[in-house]
Design goal:
It comes from Sulfuritalea hydrogenivorans sk43H. Keywords: Membrane, Signal, Transmembrane, Transmembrane helix. This is Cytochrome c family protein. This protein is about 55% helix and about 0% strand. By secondary structure, the protein is an all-alpha fold. Among the domains are: about 120 residues, no CATH class; about 30 residues, no CATH class; about 300 residues, Fumarate Reductase Cytochrome B subunit, CATH 1.20.950.20. The strands form two sheets. The protein has a three-stranded antiparallel β-sheet. A hairpin with a 5-residue loop joins β1 and β2. α18 packs across α23 and α26 crosses α30. The chain is elongated, with a radius of gyration of 42 Å. The N and C termini lie far apart (about 130 Å). The relative contact order is 0.06.
């Protein structure tokens, strides 16, 4: 072998050795990073909490600790079947630090659930996913809530997002009725307290918080009062009304008695300016009223009342000592605790039953007798006009002067306005009551109108007393208190009433009535009763600070009962019995009877309705001085239109009262 051949062999061997060494080195060198599959197992390989603390740098250079996810809890959560990257869309590389492309937004819990619901509806599977439907309802409520508003201190975020309250990796609502659900319920304050630290501290030391420490699962937590998702600012009317109603979910008896008070009536109408549970008892640091720390303790109660009843401009008069004995939760069921309310309520029920039983029976029998007489032709015409002189056949008898008629009209208008505004407060949960208040603007304005109408009625009543006193004084020598021209009941009224009932059942003739019938006298004196009871109690309620300076607070409880119940009695009596007597008896049809507007009555009708007075005037020769010309046709027509309008308004009010009564609005 020549030298050249040996050289070639040596070169080849060197190249082979170099190649072998290079391959070996390459085989032993570290490999380049390669991305792994982004599944849950891969994520939990680092984020299961077993690898120690994981931190990543933030934009400002500070480090942020990553959340550890317990795999066992995650598999039991509502999101167990979801992949981590379904929410963490910005993670596209499993190698730390994760590569995050620009412009990729984080997942939005609300939008994801809304999209799932829309897809379920599109596939006609919404009925199969009732829980998702509830979530969507919560989402819609949240979007309108205070939490969904922009944070004033940090405009880059909202006040609270889903993950602030819900641990998205372990979230699951336990089934109702389970021990887990009860424990979950008691854990709510700790969640809310992460942001509302001061409120949590107050609640923890309160009667509610102490019960929670004792594992009383019925105690109130944040969500019981503020709801879970439909949370609005506590200063809004919506929140005040909702929280007050929430108190009633647990304190049912106290809430029912509160609703019967003026404070509660306004609240039920949808307005929040009167006292509510939180105004008297506090919001978070609530204590039992026997606790010296309670705002309702007897040592603190007057000061609490004076927060609203402060006497300042636009506020009720300053609360006085009598407020202390007022029972804001008094009821008519507990005689031992509230004997005054119990006795008053029973007395008012007896009065209502007695009055309506007698007069509705009276009206029913009267209608039957007149209807039967008309059917048999025994009451038409009222009198035989051919027995009257021709010059008298078309004459009228003067019954009421101008002052009487004006007073009656103003009285009727004020009463109807009182009924409208008063019954709206008495039946606050009816839809018509809310509509009435909306028409007036607010209960405050309706209350002002109510009091204006009351002062008008009281003024008319006072002027009437003055006029009657002057009239009696002028006729003092000849005036007979129990005579035929007097409104004072006498023995003839009793005989007439007995005679009417005999006539009703066909056992005697219709009695001859004097100038004022017994039912007219009842109407007249009922006004005195109403002024004393309704007017007196109304004035007490309108000026509580004055009354409480001299009388105990329980008089307000009694005043509320008699003012409302007597008003119902008066209104229903007016629009049933009074309307029947004067407008709807068969002899009066078609309505209206306009004698209170024209002041006169045809001689024929006068003789029929007041036969005893007619005979007396004829015998004494005084009939002529009461005779007047019939009112003009236009005046009569206007009177009929006015009468029909008032009757229609009265019957409408009666219908509203019946709706309120049957609908359980009071």
């Amino acid at each position: 072998m020549g030298i050249n051949q040996w050289a070639a062999w040596l070169a080849a061997a060197a190249l082979g050795l170099a190649g072998g060494l290079g391959s070996a080195a390459a085989a032993n060198a570290p490999s380049a990073p390669a991305a792994q599959k982004l599944d849950n197992a891969t994520c939990q390989g680092c984020h299961d909490g077993k690898k120690g603390k994981l931190e990543v740098p933030k934009a400002d250079g500070e480090k942020r600790e990553l959340l550890a996810v317990n795999p066992d809890k995650y598999t039991k959560s509502v999101h167990a079947k979801m992949e981590c990257v379904a929410c963490h869309k910005e993670i596209i590389d499993s190698v730390a630090p994760h590569q995050k492309p620009a412009g990729v937004k984080k997942a939005e819990c609300a939008q994801c659930h809304l999209d799932l619901w829309e897809a379920a509806k599109k596939d006609n599977k919404a009925a199969e996913k009732p829980r998702l439907g509830i979530v969507v309802e919560n989402v819609e409520a949240y979007k309108k809530s205070f939490h969904a508003k922009q944070n004033k201190d940090d405009e880059t975020r909202l006040n609270a997002i889903c993950s602030d309250c819900h641990n998205v990796h372990t979230f699951d609502v336990p089934p109702r009725g389970t021990q887990e659900r009860k424990e979950w319920h008691l854990a709510v304050p700790a969640v809310c307290g992460k942001c509302h630290e001061d409120h949590l501290e107050d609640w923890t030391g309160s009667a509610h918080g102490r019960e929670a420490d004792k594992k009383n699962f019925k105690t109130a937590v944040c969500s019981d009062c503020h709801t879970t998702h439909d949370i609005v600012g506590s200063s809004t009317d919506k929140a005040k009304l909702a929280i007050t109603a929430s108190c009633g979910d647990c304190h049912k008896d106290a809430y029912e008695s509160y609703k019967a008070s003026y404070h509660g009536q306004v609240n039920r109408l949808g307005y929040a300016y009167t006292a509510k549970c939180a105004d008297c008892h506090g919001s978070h640091a609530i204590e039992a009223s026997k606790d010296p720390k309670s705002k309702m303790h007897e040592k603190n109660r007057l000061k609490t009342c004076q927060k609203c009843h402060s006497g300042k401009e636009g506020k009720p008069g300053l609360a006085t000592a009598g407020f202390l004995s007022f029972s804001p939760h008094g009821n008519s069921h507990d005689f031992a605790k509230y004997p005054e309310i119990w006795l008053t309520t029973k007395a008012m029920i007896a009065l209502l039953v007695g009055v309506f039983a007698f007069f509705w029976l009276h009206s029913g029998l009267w209608w039957y007798r007149e209807y039967a007489d008309r059917k048999q032709g025994r009451s038409v015409p009222h009198v035989m006009t051919d027995k009257l002189p021709p010059e008298l056949a078309t004459r009228h008898v003067k019954r009421f002067g101008p002052m009487w008629r004006i007073a009656h009209l103003l009285f009727a208008l004020s009463v109807m306005l009182l009924v409208l505004t008063g019954m709206a407060a008495f039946f606050p949960e009816t839809s018509w009551a809310k509509a009435v208040m909306a028409a007036f603007g607010t209960p405050k304005i309706a209350g002002q109108v109510h009091r204006l109408a009351a002062y008008t009625m009281l003024g008319i009543f006072a002027l009437h007393l003055v006029a009657v006193s002057i009239s009696i004084a002028r006729k003092w020598k000849d005036f007979r208190f129990f005579g035929p021209d007097s409104f004072v009941p006498n023995w003839k009224d009793m005989y007439d009433m007995i005679g009417m009932f005999k006539w009703f059942v066909g056992k005697g003739p219709r009695p001859a009535i004097e100038r004022w019938s017994y039912w007219e006298k009842f109407d007249y004196w009922a006004v005195f009763w109403g002024m004393a009871i309704i007017g007196g109690s109304g004035m007490m309620l309108a000026f509580p600070h004055v009354v409480a300076a001299y009388l105990p607070g329980w008089v307000f409880n009694v005043a509320m009962v008699v003012h409302g119940e007597e008003a119902v009695l008066a209104a229903v009596f007016l629009f049933t019995v009074h309307f029947f007597n004067n407008h709807f008896r068969p002899d009066k049809l078609p309505p209206p009877d306009v004698v209170m507007f024209t002041g006169t009555q045809s001689l024929q009708e006068f003789r029929h309705e007041h036969r005893a007075q007619y005979d007396r005037l004829v015998a004494s020769g005084e009939l002529e001085k009461y005779l007047v010309d019939a009112p003009s046709a236009p005046f009569t027509l206007a009177s009929k239109i006015l009468g029909l309008v008032l009757i229609a308004f009265g019957l409408t009010l009666l219908t509203l009262i019946v709706i309120g009564f049957l609908g359980g609005g009071h």
